[in-house]
Amino acid sequence: KMDDGDDIPQLSSHTLAALQEFYLEQQQREGMKTSQRFNQYSIGSIEEDWQLSQFWYSDETASHLAMEAVVAAGKGGRIACVSAPSVYQKLKEQDGEDFSVCILEYDRRFSVYGEEFIFYDYNYPLNLPENLLPHSFDIVIADPPYLSEECLQKTAETIKYLTKGKILLCTGAIMEEQAAKHLGVKICTFIPKHSRNLANEFRCYVNYASGLN
């Protein structure tokens, strides 16, 4: 008679350790979300979705860009984040009363932010709510989802409609010529980093005297 325990498959110690690590990480993530200190606005509260061509900035880069936007907008300024959710989340973390911010984003998960969320599809650059008045933002920070001239050109239409003048664009270094052509922006010395390393070199571009040089 076979021992009953013989036909129970055993996991290798390596697989078991990997599984335990996975469950532990999951528990920690859930624990963070349920803890009192968890902030629904913090980067990571909504995880990046590569299928939507989302790549979050590192915490340091998001903070740097958020601070730049606040300074550029000025006291009581309005900031629009176009396809730049990690900067939006960093701005919300600051809980500032000196500025207001809204997010234009294709990912409907960001609707949890209520009235500040505006559904945005770059293919329809001016398909915007009526209450989003032209030239009503002191600065627009934008990160077009794709490194193509078509995507940049269409996003540029949205940016030009929204901004009173100041533009902070984040896109690939290979887009320098097109960025100048469509938005009149120049490359900065500051180099943005992402939470996961990307194959393409990214840069920031502005059309005003910024703190990114």
Number of strands: 7
Please identify, by name, the CATH architecture.
3-Layer(aba) Sandwich
Low-confidence stretches: 32-39, 41-46, 48-54
Spatial strand order of the main sheet: 3-2-1-4-5-7-6
> What portion of the residues fall into strands of 2 or more residues?
15-25%
Over all CA atoms, what is the radius of gyration? 21 Å
Total helical segments: 5
Arithmetic mean of pLDDT = 83
Distance between the termini: 78 Å
- The helix/strand class is alpha/beta
Structural write-up:
The chain is an alpha/beta fold and 213 residues long. The protein has one domain: Vaccinia Virus protein VP39 (Rossmann fold), CATH 3.40.50.150. The chain is built from five helices and seven strands, in the order ααβαβββαβαββ. The chain has helices spanning 13-34, 59-73, 85-94, 149-162, 176-183; strands spanning 77-82, 99-105, 117-119, 137-142, 163-172, 186-187, 202-206. A seven-stranded mixed beta sheet has the order 3-2-1-4-5-7-6, sandwiched between helices. The longest helix has 22 residues, at 13-34.
Comma- or semicolon-separated keywords:
alpha/beta, Rossmann fold, seven-stranded mixed sheet, protein-lysine N-methyltransferase activity
Briefly, what is this?
Pfam families: N6-adenineMlase. This protein is α/β, with parallel strands linked by helices and 213 residues long.
Task: Reconstruct the topology from this structure.
Layout: H1 13-34, H2 59-73, E1 77-82, H3 85-94, E2 99-105, E3 117-119, E4 137-142, H4 149-162, E5 163-172, H5 176-183, E6 186-187, E7 202-206
Parallel strand pairs: 1-2, 1-4, 2-3, 4-5
Antiparallel strand pairs: 5-7, 6-7
Helix pairs in contact: 2-3, 4-5
Protein name: EFMT1 methyltransferase
GO cellular component, one term: cytoplasm
GO molecular function: nucleic acid binding; protein-lysine N-methyltransferase activity
